[in-house]
Amino acid sequence: MSVTSLKYRLDLWAQQRPVAGSLLIICSGVLILWGPLAFIQFAFVPGNTIWTGILVGSVLCALGCMQLFCPTYARLTGVLAILCALASLIAASGGFGIGMILGIIGGAQGTAWCSRTISEATYQRMRDARVQRPRKIAWWKRRKQSNVSHCLSLPAIPSSKKGTRS
């Protein structure tokens, strides 16, 4: 298997999944987990919210992974990620605020994502078209054409009209 074939397959895999939303949800889960895990030594002190912060952050990481690897549940995981991100404001101070915002944006992207699945025949056609397509020439390697046919011709200016003063 060549590198271009592997790259093309990876691009095709990424086109069929909400990658950006999933990565934002996973990043928000890590940011939300960061605060409570810094104070894990106080976990058994009564009246703390460290455990709820750990729960919300780990649920967000799991939702992001589920959205990435099971794209059929993207709408459900997006809505749950938005709810968990909002709950993180109370449970873990919103992951320094940035985690909550990233979770809301990632959840919204997952909720708005629509599936674009293709058949095996369409995949073969796309792969064959990719192989047969000629390579594009970079703009700095193209020849400069000197013909003037592409210039626009300006319309003639009308001479004096009847009834106008000159």
Please provide a written account of the structure.
- There is one protein chain.
- This protein has helices at residues 3-15, 19-38, 50-69, 74-92, 98-112, 120-132.
- It contains 6 helices and no strands.
- It has a domain at 19-38 and 49-130.
- The radius of gyration is 28 Å and the shape is elongated.
- Helix content is 60%, strand content 0%.
- The longest helix is centred in the first third of the chain and has 20 residues, at 19-38.
- The model is unreliable at 146-152 (pLDDT under 50).
- With 166 residues, the protein is mostly helical.
Features:
166 residues, mainly alpha, 6 helices
Average pLDDT confidence is: 81
H/E series: HHHHHH
What is the number of E strands? 0
Radius of gyration: 28 Å
The shape, in one word, is elongated
Describe the oligomeric state of these chains in a short phrase: single chain
Percent in strands: under 5%
